[in-house]
Amino acid sequence: MKNRVQEKLLKISVFIISLMMIILRFLLNEKGRVTPDSIRFMRFSHNLPIIDNTTTPLGYPLVIKIFTLIGLDEFWSSKLVGILAYLFIIFFAWKKKFYLREVLLTCALFSFVSLFAATLSESLFLPFTFLFLYITRNIIVGKWRFGVSVFYLSLILILLYNVRYAALFFIGSTFLYGIFRNKRTEGKIFIISSLIGFLFIIGYKFLFIDYYNENYVKHFLEIGIYPTSKLLIELFQGLTTSFNPFVHISNPNGGLLNFGIYGIGLFNIILIVILFLKLALSETEKFIVFVGIIGIICSYFIQYFYQTDALDYRLLSGFTFPVWLLFLKKTYQIIGKKVYIITLLSFSSGFIFSWLSKGNYLENRKITKEYLTKKQLMNKKIVFYKNEKTDTRYAEIISTINPNLVFTLNPKDTLNKKVLTNFRVEKKMKINKNQFR
Questions:
Q1: How far is CA 159 from CA 46, 49, 128, 132, 156, in A?
Q2: pTM score, whole prediction
């Protein structure tokens, strides 16, 4: 009885601290946890129902747009989406008694806290990923009838794809798992549902992507973009930082600290492999491991054909999330409540990092708003010049006030005084900069 009360208090504490950390993560940041990708998301949302681009699936910008209807701007709407995504996962896990402890522990890791705090589609992708795991569990244990199972699984696969195109790997892994289990009822359900998902993707490509951007595939598909030597190094770095529970990014300039960061992640990966091999896994757990591994493998090989950023904790999050859930479940079976120490250390390292690298987004927002008002750019389209060496921090902050911002790569455009550049902006906007970027 005493142990149950203690763990209940631990769970409540982890939940409250995680929620506070999510909020502090974007407030203690000079630009509110936005990236160049965030600019595209917010601009897409701002311009809806006009389709701004097809590089981004419709789901995340559309959800942001919905919350702007209650009076929030795109930036604050994106933060509300992240917080609600976290709350949904916890509430659903509690309501359905499905991996509640593991969800609390996983979502408390600094890398996932950072995702929920960021204006990125991964924050919305994670709750749908959790629903996907729940639905497949119910299918594997035979909880639903055949038709109901096909409907739910097809629906969640389609919803996942509408948030991130990487959901294609979930669809593919579901199909493969169905092939391996084709003699069982769940195998047939997985095959049919994944085929429906593939049909949706084909329709999406011809009816949506090609309609708005007929050159999308030609532009983004290119064989041999990156050499294998480069991709293997990035895969190692991405995996070791993704499975480091304390630090999820390394120093891009190198240094001894990176050896520690990669070392902890590598040790954790080895531990995960040992636990999964030594401890018996249920059919559901085998599926969780399967989709996680296939997703990571596909994320690596797609880089040979599709232009994407280097693999990191963010791009791999949808596939590391199931693995983390199962790993923490197995760890709890061995060491009990001591597993919460991992979360405590992650909280500590996350807070220290956030504090050392802190900026003041609210102050920067105020300065930026005054600047845009003075330049009469609050409600107009903003053109910002950048080149390969441009620090986009100023553009990112501006986009949190006026998301209707596009980049130009043409140097001649800078002759137009209405086109913003870092040189023009930094003379007027003295922002509170992050010391440890």
A1: 21, 19, 8, 10, 5
A2: 0.93
